[in-house]
Write a structure and sequence with these properties.
Length: about 750
């Protein structure tokens, strides 16, 4: 049995004993003991960390203490034989206790904010005023013969403040849209207080009734307060009251309170009571209701205006950066273009490259901070007439109202790109972001619409992603390219089944043995109309449309089948297959590789899978799981384009790789660029210190090959060794390369 339940049981037994005692000193002492015990339970509940709004409960404890003081004063006066005057000293303690209870309820907080608002207090006051007018009908008696004295008015005060408290508790339940056990205990305690006070001060004509039943009600109220204090506060998990029911309940309560005025007037007229007797009370109560209603309506209208402004702002503002959102940017663009499509308007689109890496590595909170900083920088690059906004994700837009010519728009685009590329401080690390920037001008087409300008900007940003620097100004050929990409996606599925996809192979030369040690599988699409297409022309779109797994399976199966034929022909070489981001987060990849190895009878070490740093770290957790599952099958893993991604030893050490492939951008300029030479030298040393095999790709001449051999590079790949060849030419090509390298070494 829990502490609150035990307290209720003990309290009920004590009240039952009290009810059997005759009026006198013993019963008065027991009454006060029960009341003191109930009040003492509140600090116990607070100190046991069972309450959320501890300050409010301390106020409740103080308020009930004043009530107990009043009860003790009443007991002393009753048992001294002198009687209890109305009002008495005890009433001062009661009134102060009631006021503190009101303060406690209004100070209750939930999630750091007040549970009850000033508007709730106003509505509760309106309802209380209506009930007070109803109380007047009972007090005045038939035909208004009874003249209320000070004691009666004091009783009305008690009953009205009871009602006020009860309404506030109802509002708490309605606000939460569900009630907890604590709420029901407090509500029952207040309801008993209302019943007892009404019975004592309104129904009974001659002052407080010394009725055992009334005292039992007051004691039960004390005990219920104590039980509520001993319970752990809990937030209702499920809303049991709908928003519609909440609003309807408040409307019914308010309407009932306002309706009290005509109801009371009708009752008094039916009684035949002179207007002079009941008129002032009705006028005063009605005036109070009207004034409170006016104040409430004013606050309601103020709230509506504030919410309207907030909604308008939210509809136009990006929630992360505070900049204009897509809707506002579209309206602004439509506004400045006008119905005739004004010339000289420019739209600059800024797309952050690999921004998802930041979200995946540091979390979305840091990502939002970075977006906010990028937005601030973009605002600083333009004047006040421009509108800067976020289209969503990692895309920003700058609307330049003009008149702006091509030169000015490109200058803004360059400034925006530089602003994005400036170093960022993220968790004591300096990071740099790259961006693809596009420019679309209204002068390119007569009478352009805002939608057309946005579409052109998107076409230009796609083109910018494949350029250096990553900046493009829209021209009509970009739309043709996008149409071609869409058409190709529709044809790719047929190309897979129709045999149009083909895998070429490029040799990898081992500089230690002077022989070809492996072949890299390179996908091509032999398109019936466009000829031989490189992967860049169709793989990015295939990755977005969900067709990549089928393409990857085709390459893996074709490459392993070819490797099996080479090994049967006496070539002990492996085959390397490239994997993308989508491949690394595909949980079925490892099982498909296992099946392919078994089907073609290949050992795991005959296959190398190449991944880029950026693809491996887009989703590090799932990527590493996939790589470890592949490594468990005996295959080798290689980091492709090393030096262009994270280039972080921390990330590199977390990947189960055996090989690094230096990016061709460092290798091709090796002979003429001392900085690149230093990078290549240090990369080779780094790989060897970590026990990794190092491969240089992009070897285009003999001098570069000699330098790499002198630096201790393990293997090379490039056009100087051999160009990619169809599967049928691999055996001949490998033998030719081995012969040529062997002859060259013999000559030396």
């Amino acid at each position: 049995m829990s502490s609150p339940t035990r307290f209720l049981v003990v309290g009920a037994l004590a009240i039952a004993v009290y009810a059997t005692l005759p009026p006198g000193v013993v019963s008065s002492v027991l009454y006060c003991v029960i009341a003191v015990g109930a009040v003492a339970s509140i600090p116990v509940g607070i100190r046991a960390h069972r309450k959320v709004s501890t300050h409010s409960w301390w106020i409740v404890a103080t308020a009930l203490s004043f009530w107990v003081v009043g009860d003790i004063a009443i007991a002393v006066m009753e048992n001294s034989g002198g009687g209890v005057p109305l009002p008495s000293v005890a009433d001062a303690a009661y009134v102060l206790g009631y006021l503190l209870i009101v303060v406690a309820l209004l100070s209750v907080r939930s999630s750091g904010t007040p549970m009850l608002s000033p508007a709730d207090g106003l509505e509760a006051a309106i309802m209380t005023a209506g009930v007070g007018l109803a109380s007047w009908v009972v007090v005045s008696g038939p035909r208004g013969e009874r003249v209320p004295d000070a004691g009666t008015w004091l009783g009305i005060f008690y009953t009205e403040i009871d009602v006020f408290l009860l309404v506030l508790l109802v509002f708490v339940v309605l606000k939460r849209r569900a009630g907890s056990t604590t709420h029901w205990l407090l509500g029952a305690a207040t309801a008993l207080m209302v019943v007892a006070d009404y019975t004592s001060y309104v129904v009974v004509a001659d002052g407080p009734a010394e009725s055992t039943i009334l005292n039992v009600c007051w004691l039960a109220s004390y005990v219920l307060f104590g039980a509520a204090a001993l319970r752990h506060d809990e937030r209702p998990r499920v809303s049991t009251i709908s928003r519609a029911q909440t609003g309807m309940a408040r409307l019914i309560l308010l309407t009932s309170a306002v309706a009290m005025t005509p109801v009371v007037m009708s009752i008094e007229l039916m009684r035949g009571t002179p207007v002079t007797r009941w008129g002032p009370a009705v006028v005063i109560a009605a005036s109070i209701i009207v004034v409170l209603g006016a104040v409430r309506m004013t606050s309601f209208l103020t709230l509506l205006q504030r919410q309207s402004r907030a909604l308008r702002l939210a509809a136009d503002t990006d929630s992360v950066t505070g900049l204009a959102n897509r809707g506002r940017l579209g309206r602004r663009l439509h506004e400045i273009l006008g119905p005739e499509g004004r010339d000289g308007v420019a739209l600059v689109l800024v797309d952050l490259n690999r921004f998802s890496d930041i979200n995946q590595t540091f979390g979305y909170a840091v990502g939002d901070q970075v977006l906010t900083e990028i937005g601030r920088r973009l605002v600083d690059t333009v004047d006040s007439s421009a509108t800067v906004g976020r289209l969503g994700g990692d895309e920003f837009a700058l609307v330049l109202p003009g008149p702006v010519d091509r030169h000015d728009a490109v200058a803004v685009a360059i400034a925006a790109q530089r602003a994005v590329g400036a170093p960022l401080e993220v968790r004591d690390m300096k990071l740099t972001l790259e961006s693809s920037v596009a420019v679309a001008l209204s002068t390119d087409t007569p009478h352009p619409r805002s939608e057309e300008l946005v579409q052109r900007a998107y076409a230009a940003v796609v083109a910018a992603k494949s350029r250096q620097p990553r900046l493009a100004v829209y021209d009509h050929t970009m739309d043709i390219d996008r149409i071609d990409q869409l058409r190709r996606m529709g044809e790719l599925e047929d190309a897979i089944t129709g045999g149009e996809l083909e895998v070429f192979f490029q040799p990898r030369l081992d500089l230690r043995t002077g022989a070809v040690s492996g072949m890299e599988a390179l996908l091509r699409w032999r398109h019936p109309r466009e000829g031989l297409l490189l992967p860049a022309a169709f793989l990015p779109s295939a990755e977005q449309t969900g067709m990549l797994p089928a393409v990857t399976s085709f390459v893996i199966d074709t490459a392993m089948a070819a490797c099996r034929r080479w090994r049967l022909a006496g070539l002990d070489i492996d085959v390397a297959v490239n994997l993308s981001v989508r491949d690394l987060v595909d949980s079925s990849l490892a099982s498909r590789v296992r099946t392919a190895l078994d089907d073609h009878g290949l050992p795991g070490h005959a296959v190398v899978f190449e991944v880029t740093e950026s693809s491996a770290m887009t989703d590090p957790e799932r990527s590493i799981d996939t790589l470890e599952a592949l490594r468990a099958q005996g295959v080798s893993l290689s980091i492709d384009d090393f030096g262009t991604g994270y280039s972080s030893l921390t990330y590199l050490a977390s990947l189960p790789v055996q090989q690094l492939k230096m990016d061709r951008s460092f290798v091709t300029s090796l002979a003429s660029d001392s900085a690149n030479l230093a990078i290549v030298r240090s990369t080779i040393a780094l790989a060897h210190s970590m026990g990794l095999h190092i491969v240089a790709e992009g070897v285009e001449d003999e001098h570069t090959l000699d330098v790499l051999r002198g630096l201790g590079c393990d293997a090379v790949q490039g056009f100087h060794i051999a160009r990619p060849v169809p599967a049928g030419d691999v055996v001949r090509t490998v033998k030719a390369v081995n012969s040529a390298v062997g002859a060259a070494r013999t000559a030396v």
